[in-house]
Design brief:
The complex is a heterotrimer.
Chain A lengths: L23 E2 L20 E5 L5 E5 H5 L4 E8 L4 E12 H4 L9 E6 L4 E5 L9 E6 L2 E2 L9 E3 L12 E7 L6 H5 L17
Parallel strand pairs in A: 1-5, 2-11
Antiparallel strand pairs in A: 2-3, 4-5, 5-8, 6-7, 6-11, 8-9, 8-10
Chain B lengths: L27 E3 L4 H5 L10 E4 L5 E3 L4 E3 L5 E4 L6 E7 L4 E4 L3 E5 L5
Chain C lengths: L3 E10 L4 E7 L11 E7 L5 E7 L8 E7 L7 H7 L5 E8 L13 E6 L3 H14 L5 E7 L8 H7 L6 E7 L16 H7 L8 E7 H13 L7 E6 L7
Parallel strand pairs in C: 7-8, 7-10, 8-9, 10-11
Antiparallel strand pairs in C: 1-2, 1-6, 2-5, 3-4, 3-6
Classes of the chains: A mainly beta, B mainly beta, C alpha/beta.
């Protein structure tokens, strides 16, 4: 039993009914980072999808920005327990990027500039659930928030929304990424509080 | 060491950022700051142990690695090549420690 | 290593924003100068927050001192600097860290470089040095914003009395005292060359402060010929995310 420090309350916490279990509301946008921030010049940036057959689909920045983009407003849930509601983004839907990709793979392994990786089922990237976002709050996405472009999969914990995204490798098996290898949940649904590997 | 939830770095003299438009680097600390969580797992201090990086071969004390703490876990990176040396993730139930970035850790032999 | 109950036995204001807290811990066996403790606070509803603080006192049995600078908007430091009072309870785990430590047995010259409240673990070294009657010649370069922001200024002046073997040099980054020979500015190569031991004296070097300060100072020291492995650093900033 921990010793209570008289008069200590800690950061404001509330049981918001609209939040996933164990989350608290924040209004700022905390920057979490497992390593140095990569600087990716737009003239060398590319987003590449590699299928299980080795087929490559690649977009340089210019080609990527010519794809139809959409504005979206989504809630973010970080596994470190903060949630931020109603964030505004602009990005290209993964439905658009995967439209001409022929695959029977069930999983996507996400790779980022700087070496970060994560994993998720391919179906979680489809049907209007995921974007490659390049604007936040009407501005170019800042490097500390994942710019030039990041994956955005708001229905999963935010570590799945890989910053500085470089591409997807489509695989038949679910291959754990950086945090999934380090002890976090293979899927990461905030509403089912799938934080750690055993949850 | 002191606490902060600021998302930008303090200026080099320890003052608050004064509004200059620099992109904040993610703050990292020294491996020293992992001494407490590691002492929950080990009976000896790990921060004085000398680790050899599996990626670049540099060797140095764990206390001197780059420790990223504003993350879902602690991430120790090699000061030479920035590759991941160790990660430490704690839940209320379990602690997960990966040391796969080290080829060896050298400790003084006890006794 | 277990969490131990600690009682705040005294508090002492150091500057407008910094305060020293004396913590009494049963069975505390002392520490090595430079070590830190993890401090855990628990709210009435069970919520906990853990932070690391360098120990600023000389090693002693049964108690230790931490010197905390308030981080505006922080979660733990405002409580420790403003609210905690003698008799209040916290928990500590420590002493911690075996790398950023100095032994009073060392006969090498001692070079300390502090930025702001980064003076805390270096103060423990200087207090231990004085208590042990160490003859290791010591120099402290202490960067603060303005004269009133220096923590331990009066004690440092006493510790640096003639014959002590300690020299203290201040770098004021925003405002200097009247008649100060240098303009306000950050620690640079020239100041290091004037005020720090040269590399060929092979000093033990300890640098503590905010990340950016430590980065700059450590780079300057290595550029001045100090071996990177001799320059021990303690950055402070965000901690506690796994707790």
């Amino acid at each position: 039993m921990a010793l209570i420090s008289r008069g200590f309350s800690g950061r404001p916490r509330s049981d918001e009914p609209d939040l996933p279990p164990g989350q608290y509301l924040t209004s700022d946008f905390p920057v979490l980072s497992a390593g140095p921030t990569p600087r990716v010049p737009l003239d060398t940036w590319a987003f590449t999808i590699v299928t299980e057959a080795g087929e490559r689909h690649s977009w340089d920045w210019k080609a990527f920005r010519q794809l139809p983009a959409e504005d979206l407003t989504v809630d973010l849930h970080c596994v470190t327990r903060w949630s931020k509601l109603g964030t505004s983004w602009r990005g290209v839907s993964l439905d658009t990027l995967l439209e001409d990709v022929e695959t029977a793979a069930e999983y996507a392994h996400v790779r980022s500039y700087g070496g970060y990786t994560t994993n998720l089922p391919l179906e979680d990237l489809l049907d209007g659930q995921a974007w490659i976002a390049f604007e936040y709050d009407g501005e170019d996405l800042a490097p500390e928030h994942g710019g030039p472009a990041r994956l955005l999969v708001p229905h999963l914990y935010l570590w799945k929304s890989a910053k500085w995204v470089q591409g997807l490798i489509l695989t038949p098996e679910d291959e754990p990424g950086f945090w999934e290898t380090a002890g976090y949940h293979i899927y990461g649904d905030p509403w089912r509080e799938q934080r750690y590997a055993g949850d | 060491m002191t606490d902060s939830f600021s998302t930008s770095l303090p200026a080099p003299d320890g003052s608050a950022p004064d509004g200059t438009a620099t992109v904040p680097e993610p703050a990292f600390l020294d491996g020293n700051a992992a001494a407490g969580p590691l002492r929950e797992l080990f009976t000896v201090d790990l921060t004085a142990a000398v680790g050899t990086c599996a990626s670049c071969g540099d060797a140095g004390p764990l206390g001197g690695v780059r420790l990223f703490t504003q993350a879902p876990g602690l991430v120790g990176r090699c000061p030479g090549c920035e590759d991941v040396l160790f990660t430490l993730v704690r839940s209320e139930r379990d602690t997960y420690l990966s040391m796969k970035g080290f080829t060896t850790l050298r400790f003084p032999t006890a006794g | 290593m277990r969490w131990q109950p600690a009682e705040v036995s005294a508090v002492h204001a150091e500057t407008q924003s910094a305060r020293t807290l004396t913590l009494r811990v049963e069975g505390w066996a002392g520490h090595l100068p430079g070590q830190h403790v993890d401090v855990r606070l628990t709210a009435a509803d069970g919520y906990t927050a853990t932070r690391s603080y360098s120990i600023s006192s000389a090693p002693a049995e049964g108690e230790l001192e931490i010197t905390v600078d308030e981080v505006r908007g922080g979660e733990v430091s405002p409580y420790l600097v403003r609210d905690a009072a003698p008799g209040d309870a916290v928990e500590v785990r420590g002493p911690l860290g075996g790398w950023f430590v100095w032994s009073p047995d060392s006969i090498r010259p001692l070079q300390l470089v502090a930025g702001g409240s980064g003076i805390a673990p270096l103060m423990s070294m200087l207090r231990a040095r004085a208590a042990a009657g160490s003859t290791a010649p010591a120099r402290l370069l202490y960067s603060v914003r303005r004269p009133g922001a220096a923590i331990f200024a009066a004690e440092l002046e006493r510790l640096a009395a003639p014959g002590s073997g300690l020299e203290v040099t201040y770098a004021y980054t925003r405002a200097v005292p009247p008649g100060w020979p240098r303009p306000a500015g950050r620690v640079d190569a020239r100041l290091l060359a004037e005020a720090a031991w040269p590399a060929d004296r092979s000093p033990d070097v300890y640098v503590c402060g905010p990340t950016g300060f430590v980065e700059t100072a450590a780079d300057l020291l290595v550029a001045a010929g100090h071996s990177a492995t001799d320059v021990r650093t303690e950055r402070f900033g965000p901690t506690g995310s796994t707790s």
